[in-house]
């Protein structure tokens, strides 16, 4: 059976979403391999990222078609600033190009965009575009599209801890009220379900500081394919693999 048909049948069967057999509610993707793809094709790394953006468009569209609730994409980590000026500039330009070309369609489809990460360090033009995308789609009720830009998982946790400490200092919170749930409420993803499935392309098997808290019970799939070559069919296969996993959350 074609992977996509199987997925549709799984949804129609109304399988429980948080146990084995269903679609994930929240998918996170580390889009890795743009540089190696570019090298393989004797192209610039910037061209690799541009090709990767094409994959990104297809994957977002497909996630929305499947009715998955949340999709989190790692677009630019706090560590990525250490790349060459040329590569950083290319990625920053891609962010502008992506929102210029996609925002109308995403908004029409009811996608709600949220940027994970510290926008303060970004150039003014990018900051403005990202804020506008968040503002414009704030009331939408469809797919929740989280794009991590200047994001680090440890920085996110430190930020949450700081906010909680400030609340304690102001007398609004008792130290014993700092629970796992309270911490979760101070993360960028507050109000969203935990990540169910994390996909990292290119064969690398690392979390690389992505959604550390949210991935506590995530299932991992590591396709060998480089991100620019990653297809909707391969995505469906990863979703099917997730459907076959038995999730015990530490129980028996
Ligand atoms: C990792 O590949 C990928 C990135 C650091 C950037 C991912 C960004 C995009 C796909 C597009 C930009 C995003 C938006 C929202 C428009 P790598 O360069 O580390 O690959 P390598 O390990 O093969 O060198």
Brief digest:
By secondary structure, this protein is of the alpha/beta class. It is 44% helix and 13% strand. It contains eight helices and six strands; from the N terminus they run αβααβαβαβααββα.
Explained architecture:
The chain has 252 residues and is α/β, with parallel strands linked by helices. The chain has one domain (23-152, 193-243): Decaprenyl diphosphate synthase-like (Undecaprenyl pyrophosphate synthetase, 3-Layer(aba) Sandwich), CATH 3.40.1180. Helix content is 44%, strand content 13%. It contains 8 helices and 6 strands. It has helices spanning 3-12, 34-40, 45-66, 85-108, 124-137, 153-169, 180-184, 232-244; strands at residues 26-30, 70-77, 112-116, 144-151, 197-200, 219-221. A 6-stranded parallel β-sheet has the order 3-4-2-1-5-6, sandwiched between helices. The chain is globular and about 60 Å long. The two termini are 32 Å apart. The model is unreliable at 12-19 (pLDDT under 50). The structure holds farnesyl diphosphate. Farnesyl diphosphate binds next to helix 2, helix 3 and helix 4. Farnesyl diphosphate is lined by residues 31-36, 49, 52-53, 56, 75, 80, 91, 94-95, 98, 147, 202.
Overview features:
6-stranded parallel beta sheet; 6 strands; alpha/beta; 252 residues; binds farnesyl diphosphate; Undecaprenyl pyrophosphate synthetase; single chain
Q: What is the CATH H-level superfamily?
A: Decaprenyl diphosphate synthase-like
Which structural class best describes the helix and strand composition? alpha/beta
Strand order of the largest sheet: 3-4-2-1-5-6
The proportion of strand residues reads: 5-15%
Query: What would CATH call the class?
Result: Alpha Beta
Can you count the beta strands? Answer: 6
Shape: globular
Q: How many domain regions? A: 1
Helical stretch count? Answer: 8
Distance from N terminus to C terminus (CA atoms, Å) equals 32 Å
Provide the gyration radius in Å: 18 Å
Uncertain residue ranges: 12-19
Sheet with the most strands, sense and barrel status: 6 strands, parallel
Q: What bound compounds does this protein have?
A: farnesyl diphosphate
If classified by CATH, what would the architecture be? 3-Layer(aba) Sandwich
Order of helices and strands: HEHHEHEHEHHEEH
| Helix content bin | 40-55%
* Mean pLDDT metric: 93
At the fold tier of CATH, the topology name is Undecaprenyl pyrophosphate synthetase
